[in-house]
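Can't attach files on this board, so I'm pasting raw text. These are the components:
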Amino acid sequence: MPTDSTVNLGTVIRNRLLTFVPKAGGQTLMQKLGGATTDQARLYRDAPPDTAVYPFAVMRLINRANDRDYDYEKDPLDVEVMFFGRPRSQAQLMEDCADLADQAMLRWREPTGGLIYSKGRTRDTLPPPVEPADREVVQVRCVYSLAVWPTYLTQYSTP
Amino acid sequence: MPWESRAPIVRQRYVEAQRKGLLAAAYVGRNAVVKALRGGYTSGDFVTGHSVNAVTIGEPVWNGSGWEVAVGTNLLYNLFWELGHMNIFLRHYVRVEKWRPAALDSRLEAIEAFSRVFARVMESGV
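---
Top answer:
Structure tokens for the assembled complex are below.
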């Protein structure tokens, strides 16, 4: 799992979200959102395309406040995932998608190609939107706190 | 001179220092958000001042492990601009963050304000 750049780190996290298979079986997030491969899956980075089809999700890496106690090699960050469904009858599907994301992220321990582990989550089902937002859209927001030791930072202390 | 514990006074002053320090920090955050909201969320041509006037500060409260204070708004549309939404007029996804960048950019100033006020209250009357 390469963490030798922010782009690759985002890809590692995105793939974890999309391909995680729950213990009880059932669909992956990629199957729920749609898309035959991870490239086609409707989990977009930063922003969806203008032609996005519901349901879809948007993922962002935010709040990357580096901790100098670890010589700046530890990279705490938040992964924000916002699920969008329309019409509002898709509310349960959006909550199911968020449940899948919780399972994928909250017990994640990735020791290869750098170190990634979960530190917690906040989750909100947004209230029905008001203008100028489309009030038929359901939005569920999850923010996962991760501790990351990416190789592009740890390489400087690796002999 | 008989010994007299000053612990109750210190405890009371500590609580007061926390509350006043938090309010000082909250005003720094509030001012940063107000400044960011002045231009509105789009072109700035349709700014009414509603968002700016709705930024409020709560009362410091004890959360079980420490004191905290909130800076927020009761305007729901601020939430959707901040977190992203499907805009019915623009007909696509749009997101304009004002609150989070303002809070992050002003955090050191807020810490300084808290520290300054906290020290002043704790040292008052000594």
